[in-house]
UniProtKB/TrEMBL annotation:
<keyword id="KW-0067">ATP-binding</keyword>
<dbReference type="InterPro" id="IPR017871">
    <property type="entry name" value="ABC_transporter-like_CS"/>
</dbReference>
<keyword id="KW-0472">Membrane</keyword>
<keyword id="KW-1133">Transmembrane helix</keyword>
<feature type="transmembrane region" description="Helical">
    <location>
        <begin position="144"/>
        <end position="170"/>
    </location>
</feature>
<dbReference type="InterPro" id="IPR011527">
    <property type="entry name" value="ABC1_TM_dom"/>
</dbReference>
<protein>
    <submittedName>
        <fullName>ABC transporter ATP-binding protein</fullName>
    </submittedName>
</protein>
<dbReference type="InterPro" id="IPR027417">
    <property type="entry name" value="P-loop_NTPase"/>
</dbReference>
<keyword id="KW-0812">Transmembrane</keyword>
<dbReference type="GO" id="GO:0005524">
    <property type="term" value="F:ATP binding"/>
</dbReference>
<feature type="transmembrane region" description="Helical">
    <location>
        <begin position="12"/>
        <end position="37"/>
    </location>
</feature>
<dbReference type="InterPro" id="IPR036640">
    <property type="entry name" value="ABC1_TM_sf"/>
</dbReference>
<dbReference type="Pfam" id="PF00664">
    <property type="entry name" value="ABC_membrane"/>
</dbReference>
<dbReference type="InterPro" id="IPR039421">
    <property type="entry name" value="Type_1_exporter"/>
</dbReference>
<dbReference type="InterPro" id="IPR003593">
    <property type="entry name" value="AAA+_ATPase"/>
</dbReference>
<feature type="domain" description="ABC transmembrane type-1">
    <location>
        <begin position="24"/>
        <end position="303"/>
    </location>
</feature>
<keyword id="KW-0547">Nucleotide-binding</keyword>
Length: 584
């Protein structure tokens, strides 16, 4: 066995922790069932030997019936337990995968196709269900049953047994290659199913764009191409599986015929009694069962191992939380805040922030600058979605990398650029991630961003469904609901990434007042292209090409920085005194 085969086998063994005793019990039951079947030919011989005496034949017949009934009861119990155990194993693996996924790093999730994650968690684990218990028990019990049957056959006629063993070994060799093909084909099929899910997931997420671009056919083709590749791999696997099965069946048939011919000759020559030949042939027929079980177990395990490989790849994604983090975080002091100290950061093969130093205290800080300058990345560093390459970012003087990540994030409220809504209803979306939703002033927060009248007009008020991904809500409403959620978190620091970009001027004015009010007691960082808010900022940071080009008040930058002035001129509201009242 190569390391590539041993690793998934070891992983599968790991999944069985906690259910191994049940499996051992099931194995015992299975062996009992096999033992019962093994005794049957002996009793059949007993029946044949007693045929001439009707009084004595009744006992072996009754024993035969008793064994058959006991076999059926055992079969029911073991089938049920096998299924239940398989479900438990799959549940455990799914929980573990979900845990891995939600606790992994942001960059891992953002760089990996979502559909593939979904497919591994859903469809690969379903495949595991067929492997987790039944084939494993068969793989352990069937060979034992086979050996026991062979041992009993040896007591009848060693020459005939030699023939049978030879045939079995030859069969195993003939099936080997086909079994590898079953595993490879299954892995390939699952790979394509993952890609198909990815294509569909992407298309359905941007469904309006797909419709408006008239690209339904393109997306359809992309998804059905992947479905077809999965089908082709599946057919290839089915072919290999059929080969494995037929080789087994042929082996059993050929063995039976050869033994029958040779055995009959031996009976004629007087080397073997008729009863012995019948018993040997019954064992031959009995052998068909464990051989079929081994064949099924081998093909199921080949498919299961392919699924385990893909599950393990997902389970090996890195966890976000390094162990060295200190906890708890120091208490927030009003004079504290965030500080970037000579920070440099780059994405793989793409240097971005260069020697950024910046102090963000209580008050409103606006991060402005051209697209791609690194503004969102600066917020990502504060949230520790990514970590600095050089320098450090501190909160209240403590390096963020020394803080417990969960504790750090509890102290931050963040609205990401697309302001997605999570939660089924308006209420759930507004209270998502709020630590004490019972006591949150939802009404007041909605009023502060001018959403209260909108909510009052909804058919079911706060309990109105927002639709998947919040599509039943307009862009501006979504952004304001996201701001409500951030405000209600009661965090020390508020981070807003383009959170007002879809608001009309009047609504924006109300929201900016709320944000400015919040900034009187908290550090608030706003990333924006719309400089209307900059007039009210305590400091505006102009970030260009990953460097801080200028820091100052809006009016200072207007006077002293040509690039900022050109941005502001294009955004008339930022220099129009009447756009909304200036900061008092
Ligand atoms: N996860 C990532 N992996 C690789 N490159 C990234 C990643 N995230 C952002 N970038 C790149 O880093 C640069 C800065 O991105 P960032 O989102 O920080 O800019 P920004 O100033 O917020 O831009 P915008 O104003 O357009 O939102 C961009 O060129 C972007 O392509």
């Amino acid at each position: 066995m190569t390391e590539n085969e041993i690793r998934p086998a070891r992983a599968l063994w790991g999944y069985l922790t906690g259910t191994r005793w049940i499996l051992a019990g099931l194995l015992a039951l299975e062996l009992l069932a096999h033992a019962a079947s093994l005794v049957e030919p002996l009793i059949a011989r007993w029946v044949l030997d007693e045929m001439e005496d009707p009084d004595r034949v009744l006992t072996p017949v009754l024993v035969l019936i008793g064994i058959a009934v006991a076999g059926l009861v055992l079969a029911w119990i073991s089938t049920f337990l096998l299924e239940r155990t398989a479900q438990r194993v799959v549940l455990k693996v799914r929980r573990n995968m979900v845990n891995k996924l939600v606790h992994t790093r942001v960059d891992v999730v953002e760089q990996h196709p979502t559909g593939d994650f979904l497919s591994r968690t859903g469809s690969d684990t379903t495949l595991l269900e067929d492997t987790a218990t039944g084939p494993l028990v068969s793989a352990a019990s069937a060979p034992l049953a086979l050996v026991a049957a062979l041992a009993l056959m040896a007591t009848i006629d060693p020459t005939l047994l030699g023939l049978v063993v030879l045939s079995l070994v030859a069969t195993g060799f003939a099936q080997r290659r086909a079994l590898y093909r079953v595993g490879d084909a299954s892995e390939e099929a699952q790979e394509h199913i993952g890609r198909m899910t990815g294509v569909l997931q992407r298309a359905l997420t941007a469904f309006r764009t797909v419709k408006a671009s008239g690209t339904e056919r393109y997306e359809e083709r992309a998804a059905s191409d992947e479905a077809e590749r999965a089908y082709r791999a599946g057919v290839c696997g089915a072919r290999a599986e059929a080969t494995v099965e037929v080789v087994s069946m042929a082996a059993v048939d050929i063995m039976f015929l050869v033994v029958l011919a040779l055995g009959a000759a031996k009976v004629v020559s007087g080397d073997l009694s008729l009863g012995d030949l019948v018993a040997f042939l019954l064992y031959m027929m009995y052998l068909a069962d464990p051989i079929e079980d081994i064949t099924h177990a081998a093909t199921s395990l080949a498919e299961g191992m392919a699924a385990v490989k893909r599950i393990e790849q997902l389970r090996s994604i890195p966890h976000e939380e390094p162990s060295h983090e200190r906890q708890p975080a120091p208490a927030f002091t009003p004079n504290g805040g965030i500080r970037f100290e000579n920070v440099s950061f780059g994405y793989p093969n793409r240097p971005l922030l260069r020697d950024v130093s910046l102090e963000i205290g209580v008050g409103l800080t606006v991060l402005a600058g051209p697209s791609g300058a690194g503004k969102t990345t600066m917020l990502s560093l504060v949230e520790r979605f990514v970590d600095v390459d050089r320098g450090r970012v501190t909160l209240d003087g403590v390096d963020l990398r020394e803080l417990n990540r969960a504790e750090l994030r509890r102290r931050l409220a963040y609205v990401q650029q697309e302001a997605p809504l999570l939660g089924d209803t308006v209420r759930a979306a507004a209270l998502y991630g709020v630590p004490d939703p019972e006591h949150a002033d939802l009404e007041g927060a909605l009023r502060s961003v001018a959403l209260h009248t909108w909510v009052a007009g909804l058919p079911r008020g706060l309990d109105t469904p927002v639709g998947e991904r919040g599509v039943a809500v307009s862009g501006g409403e979504r952004q304001r609901l996201a701001i409500v959620r951030a405000l209600l978190r009661g965090a020390d620091v508020l981070l807003l990434d383009e959170a007002t970009s879809q608001l009309d001027a009047v609504t924006e004015r109300t929201v900016l007042h709320t944000i400015s009010g919040h900034a009187r007691a908290h550090p608030v960082v706003v990333v924006t292209h719309r400089l209307s808010i900059a007039r009210h900022a305590d400091q505006v940071v102009l970030l260009v090409d990953g460097r801080v080009q200028a820091v100052g008040e809006h009016s200072e930058l207007l006077r002293g920085n040509a690039m900022y002035r050109s941005f502001a001129l294009l955004d008339k509201a930022s220099i129009d005194e009447n756009a909304f009242p200036a900061r008092s």
